[in-house]
Design a protein that fits this description.
Strand content: 5-15%
CATH architecture of the largest domain: 3-Layer(aba) Sandwich
Number of domains: 2
Radius of gyration: 47 Å
Number of helices: 15
Distance between the termini: 124 Å
CATH topology of the largest domain: Beta-lactamase
Mean pLDDT: 77
Helix content: 25-40%
Length: 548
Protein backbone atom coordinates (compact mmCIF):
# COMPACT_ATOMS: atom_id res chain seq x y z
CA UNK A 1 0.00 0.00 0.00
CA UNK A 2 1.63 3.30 -0.96
CA UNK A 3 2.35 5.81 1.76
CA UNK A 4 1.76 9.53 1.84
CA UNK A 5 4.64 11.93 1.64
CA UNK A 6 6.57 11.95 4.96
CA UNK A 7 5.89 14.77 7.41
CA UNK A 8 7.65 16.23 10.39
CA UNK A 9 5.67 14.53 13.11
CA UNK A 10 5.74 16.13 16.59
CA UNK A 11 5.78 13.78 19.56
CA UNK A 12 5.00 15.18 23.01
CA UNK A 13 5.16 13.69 26.48
CA UNK A 14 2.18 13.60 28.82
CA UNK A 15 1.73 17.15 30.25
CA UNK A 16 -0.92 18.25 32.66
CA UNK A 17 -4.33 18.14 30.88
CA UNK A 18 -5.40 21.34 32.59
CA UNK A 19 -2.46 23.33 31.34
CA UNK A 20 -2.20 22.08 27.82
CA UNK A 21 -4.25 21.89 24.72
CA UNK A 22 -4.11 19.47 21.78
CA UNK A 23 -1.29 19.98 19.36
CA UNK A 24 -1.96 19.13 15.78
CA UNK A 25 0.59 17.92 13.33
CA UNK A 26 1.29 20.62 10.78
CA UNK A 27 2.52 20.39 7.27
CA UNK A 28 6.24 21.29 6.85
CA UNK A 29 5.19 24.34 4.81
CA UNK A 30 2.99 25.70 7.65
CA UNK A 31 4.26 27.38 10.83
CA UNK A 32 5.30 25.08 13.64
CA UNK A 33 2.55 24.25 16.22
CA UNK A 34 2.16 26.05 19.49
CA UNK A 35 4.20 25.01 22.50
CA UNK A 36 2.56 23.78 25.70
CA UNK A 37 0.98 26.36 27.90
CA UNK A 38 3.28 25.84 30.85
CA UNK A 39 6.34 25.93 28.58
CA UNK A 40 7.94 22.98 30.30
CA UNK A 41 7.45 20.55 27.46
CA UNK A 42 9.01 21.47 24.16
CA UNK A 43 8.10 19.29 21.20
CA UNK A 44 11.01 17.71 19.33
CA UNK A 45 10.57 17.60 15.54
CA UNK A 46 11.67 14.41 13.75
CA UNK A 47 13.48 14.71 10.43
CA UNK A 48 11.65 13.17 7.56
CA UNK A 49 13.47 10.23 5.97
CA UNK A 50 12.42 7.95 3.16
CA UNK A 51 14.53 5.16 1.68
CA UNK A 52 11.94 3.75 -0.66
CA UNK A 53 9.61 0.80 -0.15
CA UNK A 54 10.72 -2.80 0.23
CA UNK A 55 9.01 -6.12 0.68
CA UNK A 56 9.37 -6.16 4.48
CA UNK A 57 8.46 -2.52 5.08
CA UNK A 58 5.31 -2.77 2.94
CA UNK A 59 4.10 -5.80 4.89
CA UNK A 60 4.58 -4.24 8.30
CA UNK A 61 3.10 -0.91 7.18
CA UNK A 62 -0.04 -2.74 6.11
CA UNK A 63 -0.14 -4.50 9.49
CA UNK A 64 0.11 -1.23 11.39
CA UNK A 65 -2.60 0.48 9.37
CA UNK A 66 -5.08 -2.35 9.81
CA UNK A 67 -4.32 -3.03 13.46
CA UNK A 68 -6.99 -2.10 16.04
CA UNK A 69 -4.60 -2.08 18.99
CA UNK A 70 -4.52 1.27 20.79
CA UNK A 71 -0.85 2.04 21.29
CA UNK A 72 0.02 4.18 24.28
CA UNK A 73 2.71 6.81 24.18
CA UNK A 74 5.34 4.87 26.22
CA UNK A 75 5.00 1.88 23.94
CA UNK A 76 5.02 4.22 20.95
CA UNK A 77 8.35 5.64 22.02
CA UNK A 78 9.76 2.11 22.44
CA UNK A 79 8.42 1.03 19.07
CA UNK A 80 9.75 4.14 17.34
CA UNK A 81 13.23 3.59 18.84
CA UNK A 82 13.18 -0.10 17.89
CA UNK A 83 12.23 0.66 14.31
CA UNK A 84 14.82 3.39 13.89
CA UNK A 85 17.01 1.24 11.49
CA UNK A 86 14.06 1.07 9.08
CA UNK A 87 13.06 4.65 8.21
CA UNK A 88 9.91 3.67 6.37
CA UNK A 89 8.64 1.59 9.30
CA UNK A 90 9.37 4.48 11.62
CA UNK A 91 7.22 6.79 9.48
CA UNK A 92 4.47 4.18 9.32
CA UNK A 93 4.50 3.76 13.10
CA UNK A 94 4.14 7.47 13.66
CA UNK A 95 1.30 7.53 11.17
CA UNK A 96 -0.36 4.78 13.18
CA UNK A 97 0.07 6.85 16.31
CA UNK A 98 -1.70 9.70 14.60
CA UNK A 99 -4.71 7.54 13.81
CA UNK A 100 -4.91 5.77 17.20
CA UNK A 101 -4.38 8.84 19.40
CA UNK A 102 -6.84 11.45 18.17
CA UNK A 103 -6.39 13.46 21.37
CA UNK A 104 -2.74 13.93 20.56
CA UNK A 105 -3.25 13.83 16.81
CA UNK A 106 -6.90 14.67 16.14
CA UNK A 107 -8.30 13.73 12.77
CA UNK A 108 -11.76 14.21 11.27
CA UNK A 109 -14.22 11.39 11.81
CA UNK A 110 -12.29 9.64 14.66
CA UNK A 111 -13.62 9.19 18.18
CA UNK A 112 -11.44 10.51 21.01
CA UNK A 113 -10.74 7.89 23.68
CA UNK A 114 -10.63 8.64 27.35
CA UNK A 115 -7.63 8.17 29.65
CA UNK A 116 -9.32 5.17 31.27
CA UNK A 117 -9.69 3.41 27.95
CA UNK A 118 -6.08 4.10 27.10
CA UNK A 119 -4.85 2.84 30.47
CA UNK A 120 -6.88 -0.37 29.99
CA UNK A 121 -5.13 -1.12 26.68
CA UNK A 122 -1.69 -0.05 27.91
CA UNK A 123 -0.34 -3.55 28.80
CA UNK A 124 -1.54 -5.00 25.53
CA UNK A 125 -0.05 -2.14 23.59
CA UNK A 126 3.34 -2.68 25.19
CA UNK A 127 3.27 -6.39 24.31
CA UNK A 128 2.18 -5.63 20.77
CA UNK A 129 4.91 -3.04 20.40
CA UNK A 130 7.59 -5.47 21.55
CA UNK A 131 6.29 -8.15 19.19
CA UNK A 132 6.28 -5.77 16.27
CA UNK A 133 9.78 -4.61 17.19
CA UNK A 134 11.03 -8.21 17.24
CA UNK A 135 9.48 -8.93 13.86
CA UNK A 136 10.96 -5.73 12.48
CA UNK A 137 14.45 -6.57 13.72
CA UNK A 138 14.13 -10.01 12.15
CA UNK A 139 13.18 -8.37 8.88
CA UNK A 140 16.23 -6.10 9.07
CA UNK A 141 18.52 -9.04 9.63
CA UNK A 142 17.10 -11.02 6.72
CA UNK A 143 16.90 -8.30 4.12
CA UNK A 144 19.59 -10.14 2.10
CA UNK A 145 19.32 -13.81 3.11
CA UNK A 146 21.96 -16.22 1.83
CA UNK A 147 21.04 -18.29 -1.17
CA UNK A 148 22.06 -21.52 0.59
CA UNK A 149 21.03 -22.00 4.25
CA UNK A 150 24.04 -22.34 6.51
CA UNK A 151 23.69 -24.03 9.85
CA UNK A 152 24.99 -22.42 13.01
CA UNK A 153 27.53 -25.15 13.48
CA UNK A 154 28.82 -24.60 9.96
CA UNK A 155 29.14 -20.87 10.63
CA UNK A 156 31.06 -21.37 13.82
CA UNK A 157 33.29 -24.19 12.58
CA UNK A 158 36.45 -23.25 10.67
CA UNK A 159 36.63 -24.06 6.96
CA UNK A 160 37.93 -27.55 6.19
CA UNK A 161 41.63 -27.73 5.52
CA UNK A 162 42.63 -28.43 1.92
CA UNK A 163 44.35 -31.78 1.35
CA UNK A 164 48.08 -31.46 0.85
CA UNK A 165 49.24 -31.47 -2.72
CA UNK A 166 50.96 -34.70 -3.75
CA UNK A 167 54.67 -34.47 -4.10
CA UNK A 168 55.43 -35.06 -7.77
CA UNK A 169 58.95 -36.05 -8.56
CA UNK A 170 60.36 -34.22 -11.55
CA UNK A 171 60.71 -36.34 -14.64
CA UNK A 172 64.31 -36.59 -15.85
CA UNK A 173 65.12 -35.63 -19.38
CA UNK A 174 64.84 -38.39 -22.01
CA UNK A 175 67.80 -40.70 -22.35
CA UNK A 176 69.97 -40.08 -25.37
CA UNK A 177 71.44 -42.83 -27.46
CA UNK A 178 75.01 -41.74 -26.76
CA UNK A 179 74.34 -41.86 -22.99
CA UNK A 180 73.44 -45.54 -23.22
CA UNK A 181 76.85 -46.33 -24.69
CA UNK A 182 78.54 -44.97 -21.55
CA UNK A 183 76.08 -46.38 -19.00
CA UNK A 184 77.52 -48.54 -16.22
CA UNK A 185 76.06 -51.17 -13.95
CA UNK A 186 74.51 -49.87 -10.75
CA UNK A 187 74.20 -51.43 -7.29
CA UNK A 188 70.65 -52.63 -8.02
CA UNK A 189 71.63 -54.47 -11.20
CA UNK A 190 70.29 -51.82 -13.59
CA UNK A 191 72.27 -49.56 -15.85
CA UNK A 192 73.11 -46.17 -14.37
CA UNK A 193 73.69 -42.97 -16.31
CA UNK A 194 76.15 -40.52 -14.75
CA UNK A 195 74.34 -37.45 -16.05
CA UNK A 196 74.62 -35.38 -12.85
CA UNK A 197 76.54 -35.54 -9.60
CA UNK A 198 74.09 -38.24 -8.50
CA UNK A 199 73.83 -41.10 -11.05
CA UNK A 200 70.33 -41.92 -12.27
CA UNK A 201 69.22 -45.53 -12.52
CA UNK A 202 67.43 -46.83 -15.60
CA UNK A 203 65.13 -49.79 -16.15
CA UNK A 204 67.70 -51.61 -18.32
CA UNK A 205 69.04 -54.87 -16.88
CA UNK A 206 72.83 -54.55 -16.81
CA UNK A 207 73.51 -58.31 -17.05
CA UNK A 208 71.02 -58.82 -19.89
CA UNK A 209 72.46 -55.81 -21.67
CA UNK A 210 75.98 -57.21 -21.30
CA UNK A 211 75.04 -60.64 -22.65
CA UNK A 212 73.21 -59.26 -25.70
CA UNK A 213 76.05 -56.85 -26.41
CA UNK A 214 78.57 -59.70 -26.36
CA UNK A 215 76.38 -61.72 -28.72
CA UNK A 216 76.22 -58.85 -31.24
CA UNK A 217 79.95 -58.25 -31.01
CA UNK A 218 80.71 -61.92 -31.68
CA UNK A 219 78.46 -62.04 -34.76
CA UNK A 220 80.41 -59.29 -36.45
CA UNK A 221 77.67 -57.93 -38.72
CA UNK A 222 77.91 -54.52 -40.36
CA UNK A 223 75.20 -53.35 -38.00
CA UNK A 224 72.98 -55.16 -35.54
CA UNK A 225 70.62 -53.99 -32.81
CA UNK A 226 68.23 -55.53 -30.29
CA UNK A 227 65.59 -53.84 -28.12
CA UNK A 228 63.57 -55.61 -25.43
CA UNK A 229 60.48 -54.06 -23.78
CA UNK A 230 58.20 -55.30 -21.01
CA UNK A 231 54.73 -55.20 -22.64
CA UNK A 232 52.91 -54.83 -19.32
CA UNK A 233 54.77 -51.75 -18.06
CA UNK A 234 56.46 -50.40 -21.18
CA UNK A 235 59.88 -50.48 -19.49
CA UNK A 236 62.87 -50.91 -21.74
CA UNK A 237 64.84 -53.95 -20.56
CA UNK A 238 67.73 -53.85 -23.04
CA UNK A 239 68.97 -51.65 -25.90
CA UNK A 240 72.13 -52.94 -27.53
CA UNK A 241 73.79 -52.33 -30.89
CA UNK A 242 77.04 -53.21 -32.62
CA UNK A 243 78.63 -52.04 -35.86
CA UNK A 244 81.84 -52.39 -37.79
CA UNK A 245 83.62 -49.04 -37.51
CA UNK A 246 85.20 -49.13 -40.97
CA UNK A 247 82.19 -50.55 -42.83
CA UNK A 248 80.00 -47.89 -44.53
CA UNK A 249 77.18 -50.42 -44.88
CA UNK A 250 76.22 -50.18 -41.22
CA UNK A 251 76.89 -46.46 -40.87
CA UNK A 252 73.20 -45.60 -41.19
CA UNK A 253 72.11 -47.94 -38.40
CA UNK A 254 70.55 -46.39 -35.31
CA UNK A 255 68.54 -47.53 -32.31
CA UNK A 256 66.31 -44.48 -32.12
CA UNK A 257 66.23 -43.01 -35.65
CA UNK A 258 64.09 -44.39 -38.51
CA UNK A 259 66.95 -44.58 -41.00
CA UNK A 260 65.90 -47.85 -42.69
CA UNK A 261 62.61 -48.93 -44.34
CA UNK A 262 60.04 -50.82 -42.30
CA UNK A 263 59.82 -53.52 -45.01
CA UNK A 264 57.31 -56.30 -44.29
CA UNK A 265 56.95 -55.29 -40.63
CA UNK A 266 54.34 -52.82 -41.88
CA UNK A 267 52.16 -55.82 -42.77
CA UNK A 268 51.35 -56.09 -39.06
CA UNK A 269 49.73 -52.65 -39.33
CA UNK A 270 47.89 -53.70 -42.49
CA UNK A 271 46.60 -56.89 -40.86
CA UNK A 272 45.37 -54.91 -37.84
CA UNK A 273 43.51 -52.50 -40.14
CA UNK A 274 41.90 -55.42 -41.99
CA UNK A 275 40.76 -57.05 -38.75
CA UNK A 276 39.38 -53.75 -37.50
CA UNK A 277 37.30 -53.42 -40.70
CA UNK A 278 35.64 -56.80 -40.35
CA UNK A 279 38.00 -59.09 -42.27
CA UNK A 280 38.28 -62.57 -40.75
CA UNK A 281 41.64 -64.33 -40.37
CA UNK A 282 40.20 -67.12 -42.52
CA UNK A 283 39.11 -64.91 -45.44
CA UNK A 284 40.77 -65.75 -48.75
CA UNK A 285 42.56 -63.73 -51.38
CA UNK A 286 43.61 -65.28 -54.69
CA UNK A 287 46.65 -63.94 -56.53
CA UNK A 288 49.60 -64.71 -58.74
CA UNK A 289 53.27 -63.84 -58.34
CA UNK A 290 54.51 -61.16 -55.97
CA UNK A 291 56.85 -63.39 -54.02
CA UNK A 292 59.82 -60.99 -53.95
CA UNK A 293 58.33 -57.84 -55.43
CA UNK A 294 55.14 -56.02 -56.33
CA UNK A 295 54.09 -54.24 -59.52
CA UNK A 296 50.86 -53.27 -61.25
CA UNK A 297 50.44 -56.68 -62.92
CA UNK A 298 50.08 -58.36 -59.52
CA UNK A 299 47.03 -56.25 -58.72
CA UNK A 300 44.94 -57.28 -61.74
CA UNK A 301 42.60 -60.21 -61.32
CA UNK A 302 43.09 -63.00 -63.81
CA UNK A 303 41.45 -66.35 -64.41
CA UNK A 304 44.81 -67.90 -63.63
CA UNK A 305 44.74 -66.62 -60.01
CA UNK A 306 44.52 -70.11 -58.60
CA UNK A 307 46.80 -69.58 -55.60
CA UNK A 308 44.69 -68.53 -52.62
CA UNK A 309 45.76 -67.82 -49.04
CA UNK A 310 43.96 -66.84 -45.89
CA UNK A 311 44.88 -63.63 -44.14
CA UNK A 312 46.72 -65.61 -41.46
CA UNK A 313 48.77 -67.56 -43.99
CA UNK A 314 49.47 -64.47 -46.09
CA UNK A 315 50.84 -62.69 -43.01
CA UNK A 316 52.91 -65.69 -41.94
CA UNK A 317 54.43 -66.19 -45.40
CA UNK A 318 54.63 -62.45 -46.07
CA UNK A 319 52.84 -62.84 -49.41
CA UNK A 320 53.07 -59.43 -51.02
CA UNK A 321 50.41 -59.93 -53.71
CA UNK A 322 47.90 -61.45 -51.26
CA UNK A 323 48.31 -58.63 -48.71
CA UNK A 324 47.99 -56.06 -51.51
CA UNK A 325 44.76 -57.69 -52.75
CA UNK A 326 43.34 -57.65 -49.21
CA UNK A 327 44.25 -53.99 -48.72
CA UNK A 328 42.76 -52.74 -51.99
CA UNK A 329 39.63 -54.86 -51.69
CA UNK A 330 38.69 -54.52 -48.01
CA UNK A 331 40.20 -51.28 -46.69
CA UNK A 332 38.38 -47.96 -47.19
CA UNK A 333 40.32 -44.79 -47.80
CA UNK A 334 42.20 -43.61 -44.73
CA UNK A 335 41.81 -46.86 -42.76
CA UNK A 336 45.44 -47.89 -43.21
CA UNK A 337 46.69 -44.44 -42.24
CA UNK A 338 44.53 -44.53 -39.10
CA UNK A 339 45.95 -47.91 -38.11
CA UNK A 340 49.50 -46.64 -38.65
CA UNK A 341 48.85 -43.77 -36.23
CA UNK A 342 47.57 -46.26 -33.66
CA UNK A 343 50.94 -48.00 -33.90
CA UNK A 344 52.86 -44.76 -33.39
CA UNK A 345 53.63 -43.66 -36.93
CA UNK A 346 53.57 -39.96 -37.81
CA UNK A 347 53.30 -38.95 -34.15
CA UNK A 348 55.40 -38.74 -31.02
CA UNK A 349 54.80 -41.53 -28.54
CA UNK A 350 55.46 -40.49 -24.90
CA UNK A 351 58.90 -41.89 -24.19
CA UNK A 352 61.72 -41.70 -21.66
CA UNK A 353 64.13 -42.31 -24.52
CA UNK A 354 64.77 -39.56 -27.04
CA UNK A 355 63.84 -40.85 -30.49
CA UNK A 356 62.57 -39.64 -33.84
CA UNK A 357 59.04 -40.65 -34.93
CA UNK A 358 58.66 -43.08 -37.79
CA UNK A 359 56.75 -42.06 -40.90
CA UNK A 360 54.06 -43.68 -43.01
CA UNK A 361 52.41 -42.50 -46.25
CA UNK A 362 49.79 -44.34 -48.32
CA UNK A 363 48.53 -41.69 -50.72
CA UNK A 364 48.54 -41.91 -54.50
CA UNK A 365 47.43 -44.55 -56.95
CA UNK A 366 46.32 -48.08 -56.18
CA UNK A 367 49.86 -49.27 -56.78
CA UNK A 368 51.22 -46.72 -54.31
CA UNK A 369 48.68 -47.81 -51.71
CA UNK A 370 49.51 -51.47 -52.32
CA UNK A 371 53.25 -50.85 -52.00
CA UNK A 372 52.67 -48.89 -48.79
CA UNK A 373 50.52 -51.71 -47.35
CA UNK A 374 53.22 -54.29 -48.06
CA UNK A 375 56.23 -52.21 -46.94
CA UNK A 376 57.89 -51.54 -50.27
CA UNK A 377 57.55 -47.77 -49.98
CA UNK A 378 56.24 -44.99 -47.79
CA UNK A 379 57.42 -46.15 -44.36
CA UNK A 380 60.49 -46.08 -42.15
CA UNK A 381 61.16 -47.58 -38.73
CA UNK A 382 63.63 -47.58 -35.84
CA UNK A 383 64.40 -50.59 -33.60
CA UNK A 384 63.00 -48.83 -30.52
CA UNK A 385 59.71 -48.09 -32.28
CA UNK A 386 59.57 -51.62 -33.70
CA UNK A 387 59.85 -53.12 -30.21
CA UNK A 388 57.12 -50.80 -28.96
CA UNK A 389 54.93 -51.85 -31.93
CA UNK A 390 55.25 -55.48 -30.87
CA UNK A 391 54.55 -54.51 -27.25
CA UNK A 392 51.30 -52.80 -28.30
CA UNK A 393 50.07 -56.07 -29.80
CA UNK A 394 51.25 -58.04 -26.76
CA UNK A 395 49.45 -55.69 -24.32
CA UNK A 396 46.07 -55.74 -26.13
CA UNK A 397 46.61 -52.18 -27.28
CA UNK A 398 46.86 -50.77 -23.74
CA UNK A 399 50.49 -49.71 -23.86
CA UNK A 400 50.89 -46.00 -24.62
CA UNK A 401 54.32 -45.10 -23.25
CA UNK A 402 57.97 -46.09 -23.50
CA UNK A 403 59.56 -46.07 -20.04
CA UNK A 404 63.29 -46.26 -19.45
CA UNK A 405 63.90 -44.83 -15.97
CA UNK A 406 63.79 -46.87 -12.80
CA UNK A 407 60.21 -46.67 -11.42
CA UNK A 408 61.62 -45.98 -7.95
CA UNK A 409 63.26 -42.84 -9.34
CA UNK A 410 60.29 -41.38 -11.22
CA UNK A 411 56.55 -41.70 -11.38
CA UNK A 412 55.07 -45.13 -11.92
CA UNK A 413 54.01 -46.16 -15.39
CA UNK A 414 50.34 -46.16 -14.35
CA UNK A 415 50.55 -42.50 -13.27
CA UNK A 416 51.72 -41.26 -16.66
CA UNK A 417 50.43 -43.21 -19.64
CA UNK A 418 50.57 -40.41 -22.13
CA UNK A 419 47.73 -38.47 -23.72
CA UNK A 420 44.28 -39.93 -23.19
CA UNK A 421 43.27 -39.20 -26.77
CA UNK A 422 46.13 -41.22 -28.25
CA UNK A 423 44.84 -43.70 -30.86
CA UNK A 424 45.13 -47.39 -30.12
CA UNK A 425 44.00 -50.75 -31.43
CA UNK A 426 41.09 -52.72 -30.05
CA UNK A 427 41.83 -55.53 -27.57
CA UNK A 428 39.96 -58.02 -29.76
CA UNK A 429 42.08 -57.02 -32.76
CA UNK A 430 45.28 -57.39 -30.73
CA UNK A 431 44.27 -60.83 -29.41
CA UNK A 432 43.50 -62.12 -32.91
CA UNK A 433 46.70 -60.62 -34.27
CA UNK A 434 48.75 -62.39 -31.59
CA UNK A 435 47.37 -65.76 -32.65
CA UNK A 436 48.04 -65.01 -36.31
CA UNK A 437 51.66 -64.00 -35.66
CA UNK A 438 52.45 -67.36 -34.06
CA UNK A 439 52.20 -68.92 -37.52
CA UNK A 440 55.26 -66.91 -38.62
CA UNK A 441 57.61 -68.90 -36.37
CA UNK A 442 55.91 -72.24 -37.02
CA UNK A 443 54.99 -72.38 -40.72
CA UNK A 444 55.99 -68.96 -42.02
CA UNK A 445 59.14 -67.04 -42.88
CA UNK A 446 60.63 -67.48 -39.39
CA UNK A 447 60.28 -71.24 -39.12
CA UNK A 448 63.88 -72.02 -40.10
CA UNK A 449 65.39 -69.65 -37.53
CA UNK A 450 63.19 -70.92 -34.70
CA UNK A 451 63.46 -74.59 -35.64
CA UNK A 452 66.62 -74.88 -33.53
CA UNK A 453 65.84 -73.05 -30.33
CA UNK A 454 67.80 -72.50 -27.15
CA UNK A 455 66.85 -74.64 -24.21
CA UNK A 456 64.93 -71.79 -22.55
CA UNK A 457 62.60 -71.45 -25.58
CA UNK A 458 61.71 -75.07 -26.14
CA UNK A 459 57.99 -75.73 -26.11
CA UNK A 460 57.20 -72.00 -26.07
CA UNK A 461 54.84 -70.41 -28.59
CA UNK A 462 56.44 -67.27 -30.02
CA UNK A 463 54.67 -64.71 -32.16
CA UNK A 464 56.50 -62.54 -34.65
CA UNK A 465 56.84 -60.98 -38.05
CA UNK A 466 59.86 -60.91 -40.31
CA UNK A 467 60.83 -58.34 -42.89
CA UNK A 468 63.61 -57.80 -45.39
CA UNK A 469 64.44 -55.27 -48.07
CA UNK A 470 67.51 -54.68 -50.21
CA UNK A 471 68.67 -51.38 -51.63
CA UNK A 472 71.76 -49.99 -53.34
CA UNK A 473 73.29 -46.57 -52.80
CA UNK A 474 75.99 -46.13 -55.39
CA UNK A 475 78.48 -48.89 -54.82
CA UNK A 476 77.07 -49.67 -51.37
CA UNK A 477 74.63 -52.56 -51.18
CA UNK A 478 72.54 -53.02 -48.04
CA UNK A 479 70.26 -55.84 -47.04
CA UNK A 480 68.04 -54.91 -44.09
CA UNK A 481 66.32 -57.69 -42.16
CA UNK A 482 63.79 -57.34 -39.34
CA UNK A 483 62.11 -59.43 -36.68
CA UNK A 484 59.49 -58.09 -34.28
CA UNK A 485 57.64 -60.35 -31.87
CA UNK A 486 56.82 -61.39 -28.31
CA UNK A 487 57.00 -64.44 -26.09
CA UNK A 488 55.24 -66.42 -24.83
CA UNK A 489 52.34 -65.80 -27.19
CA UNK A 490 49.50 -66.61 -24.77
CA UNK A 491 50.81 -64.33 -21.98
CA UNK A 492 53.68 -62.20 -23.30
CA UNK A 493 56.43 -61.26 -20.89
CA UNK A 494 58.73 -59.56 -23.35
CA UNK A 495 58.48 -57.83 -26.72
CA UNK A 496 61.49 -57.78 -29.01
CA UNK A 497 62.77 -56.06 -32.12
CA UNK A 498 65.96 -57.06 -33.94
CA UNK A 499 67.39 -55.32 -36.98
CA UNK A 500 70.46 -56.39 -38.95
CA UNK A 501 72.16 -54.69 -41.91
CA UNK A 502 74.38 -56.86 -44.11
CA UNK A 503 76.42 -56.12 -47.21
CA UNK A 504 77.12 -58.36 -50.16
CA UNK A 505 78.46 -60.94 -47.76
CA UNK A 506 75.89 -61.46 -45.08
CA UNK A 507 76.48 -63.54 -41.96
CA UNK A 508 73.20 -63.73 -40.06
CA UNK A 509 69.69 -62.31 -40.32
CA UNK A 510 67.49 -60.65 -37.76
CA UNK A 511 65.24 -63.67 -36.88
CA UNK A 512 68.28 -65.62 -35.71
CA UNK A 513 69.52 -62.69 -33.62
CA UNK A 514 66.07 -62.30 -32.07
CA UNK A 515 65.91 -66.01 -31.25
CA UNK A 516 69.23 -65.91 -29.39
CA UNK A 517 68.29 -62.69 -27.58
CA UNK A 518 65.03 -64.22 -26.38
CA UNK A 519 66.96 -67.22 -25.13
CA UNK A 520 69.24 -64.94 -23.10
CA UNK A 521 66.24 -63.12 -21.65
CA UNK A 522 64.46 -66.23 -20.41
CA UNK A 523 67.69 -67.68 -19.04
CA UNK A 524 68.18 -64.46 -17.10
CA UNK A 525 64.58 -64.60 -15.87
CA UNK A 526 65.05 -68.19 -14.70
CA UNK A 527 68.19 -67.24 -12.79
CA UNK A 528 66.38 -64.36 -11.08
CA UNK A 529 63.55 -66.66 -10.09
CA UNK A 530 65.97 -69.22 -8.67
CA UNK A 531 67.79 -66.56 -6.64
CA UNK A 532 64.55 -65.13 -5.28
CA UNK A 533 63.19 -68.54 -4.18
CA UNK A 534 64.62 -69.54 -0.76
CA UNK A 535 65.87 -73.08 -0.35
CA UNK A 536 63.59 -75.36 1.64
CA UNK A 537 65.14 -76.66 4.90
CA UNK A 538 66.31 -80.24 4.79
CA UNK A 539 63.90 -82.64 6.46
CA UNK A 540 65.18 -84.36 9.57
CA UNK A 541 65.30 -88.14 9.24
CA UNK A 542 64.06 -90.42 11.95
CA UNK A 543 66.89 -92.84 12.85
CA UNK A 544 64.33 -95.59 13.34
CA UNK A 545 63.22 -95.28 9.70
CA UNK A 546 66.68 -96.07 8.32
CA UNK A 547 66.97 -99.68 7.26
CA UNK A 548 70.18 -101.36 8.35
Amino acid sequence: MPLAQPHNWIVQTEPDPAKTRPIRCQDPQQPSPQAPINGRHRPVPLKPHFDGPSRHTALYTTFLRHSHVDLGLPSAYALTAALTPIPLLREATLAKLKNTHPRRYPAPGLRTKSDAERSMWMPLSVIAALAIAAVALYAVRNQNPPSVPVSRSAKSSPPPALPPKPIVKPQPLPIREDELRHAVAGPTGNLVIARTAQPQATSLDSLLQRDIQRMLDQIGVAYGSVVLIDPQTGQVLAMAEARQPDDPVGAIGSLTKPTVPAASVIKVVTAAALLDNGVSPDDLACFHGGLHGLDASHLKQRPTDRRCETLTLALARSSNAAIARFALRDLPAGALHKAAEAFGFNRKVPSDVAYQPSRFEDTGSDLDRARAATGFAGSSLSPLHAAWLAAVVASDGKLKRISAWDPALTLSAAADIGPVDAPTIKPSVAATLRQMMVATTEIGTGRHSFARRPHALRGMAIGGKTGSLSASEGEIYRHVSWFVGFAPAHQPKVAIAAMVINGWKWKVKAPTVARDALGLFFERAANKSAQATPLAPAAELDPRSIAL
